[in-house]
Amino acid sequence: MAEGVNANNCAGGHALGPNQTVSDPRLPLSPMQIFKLKKNWKGVKRRLEDTGVEMLVRLFRLEPSTQVQFKNIRHLESEDKLRMSEELEKHAGKMMASLDDIVNNIDDVDYAMDKISKVAQQHEQFQGFTAQQFLLMEQPFLDSVRIILDDRYTENMDTIYRILIKFILSNLVKAAR
Ligand code: HEM
Description:
Layout: H1 31-45, H2 48-62, H3 79-84, H4 86-104, H5 109-124, H6 138-149, H7 155-176
Bound molecules: protoporphyrin IX containing FE.
Protoporphyrin IX containing FE is lined by residues 59, 66, 69-72, 91, 94-95, 98-99, 119, 122-123, 126, 129, 133-134, 136-137.
């Protein structure tokens, strides 16, 4: 299927089922996609820290200069050491708690945007951090969720997670400017 932010979006005004009317026009996901996302995310939620550790390891592999920005992690010189680090686990937990809050409330767009702004603001205090760096997390996120969910990561869920992470990261960039 063509990959587009509005793929399957029914924000035009179709009711999709009981209790599902239209999604907020700011949100590029249809009510059905939101329903599927929340259900599927439960598999990630059970392994939030593992997902976060995988994301950070993959971020540092993709862009090694980002590791230096994490003060308690910068000295760890191998992926094995990173995976065993309590500090990395702690950071993964904080990052994933934010993402979990955003996903659980994704259809309350005011709430989700407010949370996104708060996360963006937290990053302003980190020396050398630039808003564009948020975009580096797209592929690490998708790879990690795919690994954690295994056969629950279907093609349909891939489409939904791609739309979701683009939405979150692009709004983090906007909010951090
Ligand atoms: C999905 C995207 C991301 C989310 C939800 C997220 C979330 C968070 C949260 C909740 C914290 C803790 C803030 C605090 O303790 O005050 C944090 C810290 C931090 N984040 Fe992110 N983050 C994301 C992406 C990134 C990316 C791509 C970078 C790239 C460099 C980054 C760099 C940092 C740094 C350097 C810290 C401080 C770590 C330290 O205490 O040494 N974050 N992040």
